[in-house]
Amino acid sequence: MRLRATALAPALLAALVLAGLPGCASTPIPTAEQAPGADVRTYATFAFFEPLAMEREGYGTMAGERARAVLRREMESRGYRLDPDAPSLRINVIAAARDGGGEPSFSLGLGVGVGGGNTRGGLGVGIPLGGQGSRERLRLPGAIAIDLVDVEAKRVVWTGGVDVPRVGRDGEAEAFEVALRRVMAALPARSSTP
């Protein structure tokens, strides 16, 4: 009883694709950039824009308060000092919706089935039509950006951003805070010389 190589090809291909899927779920890579001619390390004090760009007009949100707490810890750990009355930098947090910009709403899946001695493979496309999934997509951010703005010059001197992974409602707050810390990891510590 010999198996033909052509009979195993679909199953082997499917196994290789499925084995590679965990690698596709890698951690998003944060990016950061300093404005030409600017040295963010020379700024001593900071405060936050009120409200942050990610907040609804006219009032703060729990996500905004969470962002302020994380960013304050990150800034202070690098030697910057909170000064709401006379900051040299103002911090803003911008959240972009996952489905903003016309991203297609479909999913692609690969399936393999064995039955009656035959191996079969298949490819399926699903289009979500409303329901809980579409409301959740609109609620979750797809990416965040953090801008540090020179108060006097009124220009961004440092910016960083990262995609926020979809983790479900229970892990959303933690994923957001982790994303903020990952972006801020690229911010240099304040210079001790004026």
Write the topology of this structure.
Elements: H1 5-24, E1 31-34, E2 45-48, H2 62-77, E3 81-82, E4 89-97, E5 107-115, E6 118-126, H3 131-139, E7 141-150, E8 155-163, H4 172-184
Parallel strand pairs: 2-3, 2-4
Antiparallel strand pairs: 1-8, 4-7, 5-6, 7-8
Helix pairs in contact: 2-4
Key attributes of the depicted protein:
194 residues; alpha/beta; globular; disordered N terminus
Description:
The chain has four helices and eight strands; from the N terminus they run αββαββββαββα. With 194 residues, the chain is α/β, with parallel strands linked by helices. It has helices at 5-24, 62-77, 131-139, 172-184, and strands at residues 31-34, 45-48, 81-82, 89-97, 107-115, 118-126, 141-150, 155-163. The N and C termini lie far apart (81 Å). The relative contact order is 0.21.
Q: What shape does the CA trace take?
A: globular
Strand content: 25-35%
Radius of gyration from CA coordinates: 23 Å
SS elements, strand count: 8
Please state the average pLDDT score. 75
Helix vs. strand class: alpha/beta
Oligomeric state, counting identical vs distinct chains:
single chain
Q: Give the helix level as a range of percent.
A: 25-40%
* Low-pLDDT sequence parts: 3-24, 100-112, 125-140
Distance between the termini: 81 Å
Please, how many helices?
Answer: 4
Q: If strands are numbered along the chain, what order do they take across the biggest sheet?
A: 1-8-7-4-2-3
